[in-house]
Specification:
The protein contains 9 helices and 2 strands. The chain is mostly helical.
């Protein structure tokens, strides 16, 4: 994987993480100005969400840290195992994915179905970290395909979820709701990662 490709991927991943802490749901009232990290927890109180009318589900709002972790892992696919930077990056990828973990209170009191998808997502990142660290006997094109896939899903799915929940929020609040900079940043960051992977040459073991 070329240095130039890594640099653009790193920019995309950074944009994703910054955007997750920017407003996704902007509102003049501070208590209703929600960042990406808060969206999944807040929308569960909407009557339509409680009735199961939101498709995709609210767990989609926890996708960015999982997809960012996977993108970071894929970026290190062919990095030399002997470099400390390789292991720091892979550890960081797992730590980033932990942002999607449910709170202890949710695990204790909420039905498992409300947080199992997030646990599976974090588990996927951990399994991917182990697999990438332990095997190189895979096609050189595979990380490129996975980067495009993860980048595309991470860009489209949260935006789709936001557009699906937006009319519910408007009905509940009785006021117009814009699309915050965080959701656009998430779209751009994931899109940049996918485009970078699609335009680059297949990686070779380093």
């Amino acid at each position: 994987m070329s240095l130039k490709r890594d640099q653009w991927l790193a920019v995309g991943i950074t944009v994703i993480l910054i955007s997750y802490f920017l407003p996704w749901l902007p509102h003049p009232a501070a208590g209703l100005r929600l960042i990406g990290l808060e969206m999944g927890e807040w929308v569960k109180f909407l009557p339509q969400v409680q009735a199961g009318q939101l498709r995709p589900g609210r767990d989609t709002f926890y996708l960015p840290p999982i997809s960012a972790g996977l993108l970071l892992l894929l970026m290190t696919w062919y990095w030399p195992h002997g470099r400390w930077q390789t292991w720091v990056a892979r550890l960081l990828a797992v730590l980033v994915s932990l942002l999607a973990l449910p709170a202890i209170e949710a695990i204790r009191f909420d039905p498992p179905a409300t947080y199992q998808q997030r646990l599976w997502g974090v588990g996927l990142v951990i399994v991917a970290a182990v697999a990438i660290a332990g095997s190189r006997r895979l096609p050189a094109w595979l990380p490129t395909v996975l980067l495009i896939l993860v980048g595309s899903v991470g860009a489209i799915w949260p935006l789709w979820a936001y557009l699906a929940v937006r009319p519910m929020v408007v009905e509940w609040l009785g006021t117009a709701v814009a699309i915050g900079p965080g959701i656009w940043g998430n779209f751009i960051g994931h899109g940049l990662a996918a485009i970078t992977a699609a335009r680059a040459r297949p990686a070779k073991p380093g």
